[in-house]
Amino acid sequence: MFEGLFVLSLRVPPESAFAHELRAVGFDVSDVQSKYDKDIWTASLDVAHRYRYPELERFVAWRRLGRDFIRGYLQTVVGRFIGAVLPLIGTTRFIERVPAFVRTGLGGTMCEVELVGPTSALLSFDGPHVGSSAVMAGVLDECFERMHVNATLTAHQLGGTTSSLDVRWDA
Known about the structure:
Structural class: alpha+beta
CATH class of the largest domain: Alpha Beta
Order of helices and strands: HHHHHHEEHEE
CATH topology of the largest domain: H-NOX domain
């Protein structure tokens, strides 16, 4: 997630003030590790908010950063494969697979999908940080666009680390 967002998508220059602030919270764009503590992810998102979207409210910025993240992730070897098959898997199957994507990218986050109807779903998130649904809304916004699906996503912060995402799409 860190490489996809900060290195591939945002292309943070290693000697910039942005990179310096990221290092101060525990992430070095010049030395990407395979795993980070959830608090480093949250702090890094807040740094990115200040540098990329300072005019936006926190979770609105995080939603934009979710879009930025998936754009970078889709440039990786695995991401290019996923990007190629994304339009082929269908909206419902894609939504049903979101919990697996979340487990891979946001270790410690629990995600459940409830299909509410043929063109709507409720995604519930618990942990490891606030705003999971805001980041995922941005990720899904970008994925739906790449799938050529018109969708409306509404993120709700429910308190603590619990959040939800209402997803509705055209048939």
